[in-house]
Structure formats: structure tokens, C-alpha cells
Amino acid sequence: MSFAPQFSRQDIRHFLEGYAKAHPEDVLNVDEEISSDQDITGLVWTLAARGKHPLVICNKVSGIGSKVVTNLFGSRERVARMLDTDALGIHAAYQARTRKLLEPRMVASGPVCDVVESSNIDLATLPLLRHFATDRAPYITNGIIAADHPDTGAGNLSYHRSMLHSKTELATSLHSRGHLWRILQAASDANQPLRVAMVIGAHPLFMLAGSARLPMGVDERHVAGGLFGEPLEVVRTPKYGIAVPAHAEYVLEGVIDAKAHAEEGPFGEFTGYSSNRSTNNLFRVETLMRRRDAMLVDVVGGNSAEHLNLGRIPRESEMVEKLRERFPSVTAVHYPSSGTHFHAYVAMKQVRDGEARQVMLGLLGWDPYLKTVVAVDADVDITRDEEVLWALATHFQPHRDVLVIDGLPGSALDPSAGSTGTTSRMGLDATRGANFEGQRAQIAPEAMARAAAILARVTGTGKPA
């Protein structure tokens, strides 16, 4: 989008101004004063119940002194627009951009350097929201932690929920046991704390890069450059020189010591349950950087469409590419909201018996979060749960079409799993198979066209009801 020339195109304010001009119907401005205690989550949940997922801007939030932008990723159509495509083209556009890794470009300064505090830090001045009544406290839900491996220098970005612990400390969880966890262990092995920087609020393409699924050693800041189509503009944090987006709203710089712990949780997680499972890490903040008029860019927690989309779009995109490389018969992959991150649907044109099982085993092996995969034929719309359930009802026989694998690592946040996150996994083959008897009932295209014309006349809108 070529709008808001007063801001860099890597600035979220550039995005917000441009998007509001191009799609005003998809932006909800709330000028009435609302509470920082659950009101924003309540707004997003109420809108979702009505089938609406707009970008929400709350201009007056009591107790935090800044504007709040939330639900950026609540709509797949909006994410598609960020990538200059439509909803059907998200996977291809995302993969095409993220393959073009671009090293960040260091700049002398940026808006995030407007205010830099290294003494008398009080994290209670940060704009913090309570998202659910069951949350232990107000939380940072959009904290992207940047760190560099102490031995290799390889960079990493990842999201981690964080709660105020003291004026200069945050309690956080590295519950994914992902790359940051491994980098922290490397620092611990060297008897040193890990130097980190937390970015709170940046351009949505940077936020999308923060949720990318990458091999160890590949830096998400390079992925951000690919998504932008130009190098990510970064500045160095004052004490440890960590590269952070020059146009961020807030950056907190400090250390995580593997030996230091602080309790946090429960917190409303993507499962839809409030979870107190946590690694209980302690982040000591030594520098606070922010824009002079910094705003809070929030991510709605729980099993909101935003939380799920932000995590699943990179996952879906990766899985589609992997599967199609090995199995050209795969036509689509979808992680439904109803299954949080634990279910996936795969559509395919099966060319021989058993291929659906191979595909499901591939997905269950590649994605550690998945517990259930349902395979269906290509004519089933896997973006609609009811279509997949219809395929299960009419094509599936439990005695022959179920495969189960036990004792695999899964998500530590799965409330049905043990404390170690060990899980079983299941594949359900709801494809028709070679000997299937039955013809799908169909309506002729001409009849559908006549029905649409009749409804347009009956409703008086000129459009189908």
C-alpha cells in the first residue's frame, strides 16, 4: 500500500493509515472510554459472535494512557491484503516472500529511540491489559523476544507471554521449548545470562515474521525483510547491541538468566483454556526504549481468531509446501479454528489406495502440535467444518480408516496431555477410496443462476440474499 508518506512503509502507522483509507469498512474506531480490564477482549468476542473480525482501534482506554490497536490478524482476508493477495493465495504469497531472506539494514536512529531510559525504570508505566477474568494479572501478549546465539551469533525471534513481576522484571514463559529455549540453554552452559530484547508493537509484517517456523539458525529478522520486499530497518539496543525494528513502538532490553525464576500464569491460551503451565523464566529489564507517543499493539489472547491466525498461517504455508513437494495430489491444507492448533484438514486427489495415510503421517510427523488430521477429497471445502464432518459421516469407516500413534511430543499447553506434553496422534481417512459407491447430489449451474436471480428480485437489492 502506498499511503501515509509521513511514515516509513515499515511503520505500523503507515499501515494503519493506508488500510483505513483503502478499507474503512474493515476498521472499527472506538472513541468511547473503555476499561483495560477485559473490555477489549469482550469487544472482539462480541464482534466475532456476529461474524465480524475488524481491525479494532480503541482511542480511550482507562488506566493505560495510550491508544490500543488490536485484532490485526483477526481476519484471513486482512492478512491476505498485507501480502497483496486474496485469502486463497495466502500460502503461496507467504512462502514466496519468506524464501527471499534479506539481511537487516542498520540505521542510525528511528522512532523507537525517541525515549531511552536506563535508570529509574518502572515497567508499571507500560500499557498492560487484562484479557480474561482468569488471567493472573494484566499481560503483554505481543512480546516478540529477539536474541542471538552466544556461540554462533544466529538470531531468533519468538512470541512469549509476559507478566509484570517488579518495576524492572517480567515473568515470562518459554513454553514452546523452541529455539529461544535452546539458545538460553547454550548461554547457561557458558555460565552467562542470555541478552535479549522484547519488541512490543511493530508493523504487522514484522509480527508475522515473529511467528515464522524456521530451521535453527535462520533469523526471523531476515524473513521480515522478505515479507517487506526490502531489508528490515533496525537500530542497536544501547547496552547489548541487539538489532530491533527502528519503527517499533516499545523495546525492552535486558537479560534472561536460566537460573532465575518467577511464577506467572494462569493465562488464557490458544486452547481456549486458562493455563498455568509455564517455564516461569525471569526477564530483567535494563533499558526501556519507546516512541514519544507510543501506542499499544495488542494481540487478543485465548482461542481468538487473531491468536490462531498469527500462529497457523505460517504453519499452514509450510505444511502445504512440504506436502505438495512430496505429494502433488494434495490440493489444500487448513487448520480450523475449532481445532485450535491441534487439528488439520487436508484435501487431495488420491491416485492410489493408502496415499491419504502417507499424507496424514507426513503432517503428523512434521507438526509437533497436531493431534488429529482428517483427509478428504478435493471437492470438499476444508475451510468449512460442516463439509469435513459430512465427509466423515459418509466416507469414513472407523474399523478401517483410523490410524493412531502414541507417545509423541506435543504441546505443553494441551490440557488433555500430561505435564510433559506427550500426546497420541490420529489420522482419519475420509476420502472416498477406490471402491466407493455413490454419486454426490448436484444442482445444475443454470438452476443455481436462476435461484440467485430470483432471490435478487425478491429481496429488492439486486443481489442474492
Structure, briefly:
This protein has helices at residues 12-22, 39-49, 76-82, 90-98, 179-189, 204-210, 220-228, 305-326, 355-366, 385-395, 398-401, 445-459; strands spanning 27-30, 34-35, 55-58, 61-62, 68-70, 105-106, 115-117, 139-140, 143-148, 155-159, 162-166, 169-172, 194-200, 233-236, 243-245, 250-261, 267-268, 274-275, 281-290, 296-297, 330-334, 343-348, 372-377, 402-409, 422-429. The protein is of the alpha+beta class and 465 residues long.
Salient structural properties:
single chain; 465 residues; alpha+beta; 9-stranded antiparallel β-sheet; 5-stranded mixed β-sheet; 12 helices; 28% helix; globular; disordered N terminus
Folded structure, characterized:
With 465 residues, this protein is of the alpha+beta class. Helices cover 28% and strands 25% of the residues. The chain contains twelve helices and 25 strands. Strands 7, 8, 9, 10, 11, 12, 13, 16 and 19 form a nine-stranded antiparallel β-sheet that branches. Strands 21-22-23-25-24 form a five-stranded mixed β-sheet, with helices on both faces. Helix 4 packs across helix 8 (305-326) and helix 6 (204-210) packs antiparallel against helix 7 (220-228). The chain is globular. 45% of the residues are buried.
